[in-house]
Specification:
Bound molecules: 2-acetamido-2-deoxy-beta-D-glucopyranose
Largest sheet: 2 strands, antiparallel
Radius of gyration: 20 Å
Strand content: under 5%
Order of helices and strands: HHHHHHEHHHEHHEEHHHH
CATH architecture: Alpha/alpha barrel
Number of helices: 15
Number of domains: 1
Distance between the termini: 27 Å
Strand order of the largest sheet: 1-2
Length: about 400
């Protein structure tokens, strides 16, 4: 057999034996829970990203096919759930609101929907002026939103305040806007914003505090916030990498990957015996939280799938976390538990929409890692023979993803 074809077949076998552990029915019920309950701006943004990575992986920034986006989508690969989020938001937006969601209170959350809005624009979706909506959102961030003295865009409208959550919600939009309009300044702005947030939030342990500046701060190392920050770093890194400026911005790419790695290294040091993280990572009095556990596991698997500067050191912890998330933490109704109340983050909640997005982000990352042959299962770099095949598998990844979508995935 032709070598690439042989590899293709081999890696599909691996993907089938490793990647699909949740059943299709479980994935469907998690997706349904998410679609029925996501309503806040950041929940819609996380939902759009999770559905893109899971169902339309070649449109997500982890794929070499993602940039530039296709100018049209066909009826069997139409990103309809993602485009529909963008359409509803743009249609509900008053004409005089620059932010995608009017009067949100958060500067940083509405832009999380902006990647889907730009995707709708470039793929020729009907149903709204997606281009004008995306530009309004960008202009609000760049020219109107309050900033810290160092230049960090505030996460809040009413006061200057920096939240770790921001890193997932806003820089990925600014970076994607830069990539699709071939504007390197915007890619640099996304990088700088994360750098400023890291300067303000990171402690010497490598863990990030949750909220600083203004009134109502939270100095604790909120686990979900560390997940948002590390996952946001990787999305911006990959947007830079596959943009027209990837070659010129290798330092920025490497910094962002390193910052994500620094967070997962710090976080997993506090993993509990059943694989969970605590809601405040290093506070032993804090409750167990399966939501952040899922999100941070997705980041560890993504780190092991990167086309350059991949790392494998936290795969064993991520694998332990995944077995908890796919096993005892996932109820027969598709809800994850126990989870933090996302509207009242020091407290235990019951049903958290964002946690359902985290399960899907984990499944997408775990699938892609499986397609690449599950590199680094031992926590150290794969053997030289496997490493030498990785670049080829990386090139084939979008094809393999498309193939895996059409496979019956039930064991
Ligand atoms: C639809 O688009 C996808 C992604 O480009 C492609 O893999 C697939 O073959 C297309 N399907 C049809 C029916 O054209
Ligand atoms: C989009 O794709 C879904 C299935 O993937 C299909 O059910 C739906 O009819 C499609 N919509 C359009 C407008 O083609
Ligand atoms: C929206 O898409 C059109 C056509 O592809 C493009 O000319 C325009 O610049 C896009 N808008 C934004 C904000 O990127
Ligand atoms: C979208 O809005 C922009 C700015 O207001 C305008 O120039 C453009 O013509 C609009 N596009 C469509 C398709 O309505
Ligand atoms: C890049 O985007 C910024 C902000 O919208 C804009 O001021 C600048 O003119 C753009 N640069 C290029 C080369 O288009
Ligand atoms: C994991 O263990 C903790 C106790 O350390 C417990 O509170 C939590 O419920 C467990 N998680 C799951 C999903 O069973
Ligand atoms: C649905 C399913 O098959 N879940 C299994 C995934 O794998 C773990 C451990 O490998 C099992 O504990 C789950 O039951």
């Amino acid at each position: 057999m032709h070598l690439p074809l042989a590899l293709f077949a081999l890696s599909l076998l691996l993907a089938r034996s490793l990647a699909q552990n949740l059943t299709d029915a479980q994935i469907a019920s998690v997706r349904a829970n998410l679609e029925q309950t996501a309503s806040q701006a950041w929940e819609l943004g996380a939902e759009a990203e999770a559905l893109t990575e899971l169902d339309y992986p070649t449109l997500a920034v982890f794929s070499s096919w993602s940039l530039p986006p296709p100018t049209s989508l066909n009826s069997s690969y139409n990103a309809s759930e993602v485009i529909s989020i963008a359409t509803k938001v743009v249609q509900a937006k008053p004409a005089n609101s620059e932010p995608l969601v009017a009067n949100d209170g958060a500067v940083g959350d509405p832009p999380s929907i902006g990647v889907a809005v730009l995707l709708a624009n470039y793929t020729g979706a009907q149903g709204g002026n997606f281009s004008a909506a995306a530009t309004g959102q960008l202009d609000y961030l760049l020219y109107t939103a309050p900033r810290s003295s160092a230049g960090a865009i505030s996460h809040r409208v009413e006061q200057v305040q920096l939240w770790s959550d921001f890193v997932y919600m806003t820089p990925p939009f600014i970076a994607y806007y830069g990539a699709v309009t071939q504007n390197q300044t915007l890619l640099a702005t996304a990088y700088q914003q994360i750098s400023l947030y890291r300067d303000a939030l990171r402690d010497s342990s490598g863990l990030w505090r949750h909220i600083v500046l203004g009134s109502g701060t939270d100095d604790g190392h909120w686990a979900t916030g560390n997940g948002w920050a590390s996952a946001g770093c990787l999305r911006v890194a990959m947007t830079i990498y596959y943009s027209a400026f990837g070659g010129q911005m290798q330092n920025e790419y490497n910094d962002l990957v390193g910052w994500a790695q620094e967070i997962v290294n710090a976080v997993w040091a506090y993993q509990q015996s059943n694989g969970t993280l605590l809601n405040y990572v290093d506070d032993p009095t804090s409750f167990a939280d399966s939501a952040s556990t899922a999100l941070l596991a997705s980041v560890s698997f993504r780190l092991a799938t990167l086309p350059t500067s991949a790392s494998y050191s936290t795969i064993p912890q991520a694998e332990k976390a995944r077995q908890l998330v796919y096993g005892p933490a996932l109820g027969s109704d598709g809800w994850l538990s126990p989870v933090v109340d996302p509207y009242n983050y020091p407290n235990l909640g019951s049903q958290s929409p964002e946690s359902e997005a985290f399960v899907l982000l984990l499944q997408a990352a775990y699938r892609d890692w499986g397609i690449l042959g599950a590199p680094g299962q031992s926590g150290s770099a794969p053997p030289a023979a496997a490493l030498s095949l990785l670049p080829l598998l990386q090139d084939l990844l979008p094809l393999l993803q498309m193939l895996s979508l059409t496979q019956d995935s039930d064991p």
